[in-house]
């Protein structure tokens, strides 16, 4: 490895580590390389659906949901000794909700970018393209329908009219088979769970990092210290909410634990009710004097 290439690789990896969080970039400890996780910025009210309408599809149900986040596109790469002067990074590309042929198109675009940069470092440009250009490049719009067909292969339809083949043979075969493309979806149920779990986790992460005004104590607190009622969008800090629910529990209103906002009909979620049950147990153990809210 030429000294210039080695220095360029080290500088690029250090720059990526300083710009991106560990959730987005992880450097390999054993070789010059790493893993890049790209979470796309979806437009508002982005709808994703899965429908069992292929003749050979074992999935007979249907799924549709509006999501703010989808599982990331994952780029694993290793830098060869000749990078960046002569050789491109070796890489694989995976994503749970994109089809194999769509991933191949992304791989080809990464190849094109490498050619355009002509011997310069390219990983940052790859990340920018994947994050900012994937939806437009693949003509992905809402509503976005994922159809899972026989042999676990995927065919994708969207309102642009572009679709993939449902079988492993035919005109799409030359496009689909690329060793750099990895599909790790075990089943439709697993895919649906992954989409919903990831969306919920990312929404909570965003909520926890922002500040909100509690409508009871009128103090600003981080979302990690607050509870958000999804139906009505009201937010209260956990300390005030605990006091409010303690009073409700002591008054015997255990079944209908509602949002504290006057005349609001929203009720606690199952997760919130679980937290309330623990509060109730502690309340009974401590046997505090009955107080008014």
Walk me through the structure:
Pathway: Protein modification; protein ubiquitination. Pfam families: RWD (PF05773). By secondary structure, this protein is of the alpha+beta class. It has helices at 3-19, 100-117, 123-137, 173-176, 188-209, 238-250, 270-286, and strands spanning 25-27, 33-38, 46-51, 62-67, 73-78, 90-94, 144-148, 154-158, 181-182, 211-213, 220-222, 226-228, 235-237. The chain has 7 helices and 13 strands. The protein has a 5-stranded mixed sheet. The protein has a 4-stranded mixed sheet with strand order 4-3-7-8, covered by helices on one side. It has a two-stranded antiparallel ribbon with strand order 10-11. Helix 6 packs across helix 7 (270-286). The longest helix is centred in the C-terminal third of the chain and has 22 residues, at 188-209. The model is unreliable at 150-175 and 289-293 (pLDDT under 50).
Primary descriptors:
alpha+beta; 36% helix; EC 2.3.2.31; 4-stranded mixed β-sheet; Herpes Virus-1; Ubiquitin Conjugating Enzyme; 5-stranded mixed β-sheet; 293 residues; disordered C terminus; transmembrane; 13 strands; 2 domains
Q: What's the CATH class of the largest domain, please?
A: Alpha Beta
Q: Which oligomeric state applies?
A: single chain
Rg estimate, integer Å: 25 Å
- The computed structural class is alpha+beta
Q: What is the number of helices? A: 7
How many angstroms does the end-to-end distance come to? 71 Å
CATH architecture label name of the largest domain:
Roll
Please trace the helix and strand order, writing H or E for each element.
Answer: HEEEEEEHHEEHEHEEEEHH
Stretches where pLDDT falls below 50 for ≥5 residues? 150-175, 289-293
Helical content (DSSP H or I, runs of 4+): 25-40%
Which band does the percent of strand residues land in?
15-25%
Number of strands: 13
The largest beta-sheet arranges its strands as 1-2-5-6-9
- Looking at the structure, the CATH topology of the largest domain is Ubiquitin Conjugating Enzyme
Q: Which of globular, elongated, flat, extended, rod-shaped describes the shape?
A: elongated
CATH superfamily of the largest domain: Ubiquitin Conjugating Enzyme
Mean model confidence by pLDDT: 81
């Amino acid at each position: 490895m030429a000294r210039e290439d080695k220095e360029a690789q080290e500088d690029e990896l250090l720059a990526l580590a300083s710009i991106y969080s560990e959730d987005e970039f992880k450097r390999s400890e054993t070789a010059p390389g790493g893993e890049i996780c790209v979470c796309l910025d979806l437009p508002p009210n982005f709808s994703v659906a899965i429908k069992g309408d292929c003749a050979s599809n074992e999935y007979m149900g249907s799924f549709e949901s509006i999501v703010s986040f989808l599982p990331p596109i994952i780029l694993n790469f290793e830098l060869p000794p000749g990078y960046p002067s002569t050789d491109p990074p070796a890489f694989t590309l995976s994503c749970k909700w994109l089809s194999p042929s769509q991933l191949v198109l992304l791989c080809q675009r990464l190849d094109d970018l490498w050619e355009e940069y002509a011997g310069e470092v390219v990983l940052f440009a790859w990340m920018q393209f994947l994050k900012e250009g994937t939806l437009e490049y693949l003509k992905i719009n809402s509503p976005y329908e994922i159809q899972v067909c026989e042999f676990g292969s995927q065919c994708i339809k969207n309102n642009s009219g572009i679709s993939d083949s449902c079988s492993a043979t035919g005109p799409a075969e030359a496009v689909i088979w690329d060793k750099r493309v990895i599909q790790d979806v075990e089943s439709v149920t697993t895919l649906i769970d992954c989409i919903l779990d990831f969306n919920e986790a990312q929404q909570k992460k965003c909520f926890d990092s922002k500040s909100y005004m509690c409508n009871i104590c009128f103090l600003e607190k981080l979302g990690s210290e607050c509870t958000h009622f999804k139906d009505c969008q009201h937010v209260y800090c956990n300390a005030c909410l605990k006091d409010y629910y303690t009073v409700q529990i002591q008054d015997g209103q255990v079944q209908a634990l509602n949002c504290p906002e006057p005349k609001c009909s929203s009720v606690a979620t199952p997760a919130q009710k679980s937290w309330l049950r623990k509060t109730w147990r502690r309340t009974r153990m401590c046997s505090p004097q009955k107080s008014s809210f």
